[in-house]
Predict the 3D structure of the following.
Amino acid sequence: MRTVYVNGEYLPEDAAKVSIFDRGFLMADGVYEVTSVLDGKLIDFDAHAVRLDRSLRELDMRAPMQRDELLAVHRELVARNDIAEGLVYLQITRGAPGDRDFVFPDPETTAPTVVLFTQNKPGLADSAAARTGMKVISIPDVRWGRRDIKTVQLLYPSMGKMMARKAGADDAWMIEDGFVTEGTSNNAYIVKGNKIVTRALSNDILHGITRAAVLRFAREAQMEVEERNFSIDEAYGADEAFVTSASAFVMPVVQIDDAVLGDGRPGRVAPRLREIYLEESRKAAI
Ligand code: PMP
């Protein structure tokens, strides 16, 4: 059984409890982070901590812990659960004021709820899906306008994954005004010739931690990167496509709706970026 962390305590998962009045449960009033673990070490922890602070600030929530404490809890859970490859989830909600009310509770009297848990994922890095590539479908992006905040409001992404599954695909790319915003739980990229194209940062997408690292590595490897909107029609005609996230790293996409890209197998750019990303991330892991 897993050991999880709830509000200062390490507990067996079946002993961990959160109030029914928790605003995460009642209103999706909370934020989260997902950090991957390779070789028992955390990938890009600092960048996740920085984004967490930003999410909290944007929602007028207080950071419940200093960064070094947060790191210590992550490490303790990785150790206690013996995670060599996997993920650490961190959830912070505005807490449980003891009744239901739209008005934010006073942070002096209502402490945030802090939950961390691990997922053991042997084979996360050496993934079969990365060798074959994924199929995605396009769906309308009907999410709210602050997708840059990593909230626990994941109903539409969850519905998008179900739409994909029903259509025999692996995931969905979301479309707004004809342009791809992002994947349901990842950032989206196309490759044309030597150019990597991905949507620029704004409130329309999550500012992916993996995105930042991958674009940096791509530029260092002298690849051309264009941060701009691309349409779903442009994506159909791309040579390659891929997605990035903390849990999938760099994952090739070989089909978008009915459009098969290239010869239907991962191309040259995405597998190379995956290799570089994994190598550099392992080196920098803490
Ligand atoms: N976009 C969305 C909507 C996501 O949910 C995620 C993953 N949480 C990402 C992008 C990728 O972000 P990261 O690389 O930080 O995991």
Summary: The radius of gyration is 19 Å. The mean pLDDT is 98. Residues 34, 182, 185-187, 206, 208-211, 244-246 surround 4'-deoxy-4'-aminopyridoxal-5'-phosphate (CB under 6 Å). The helical segments are 23-27, 45-58, 67-80, 128-132, 155-166, 209-220, 232-236, 269-284.
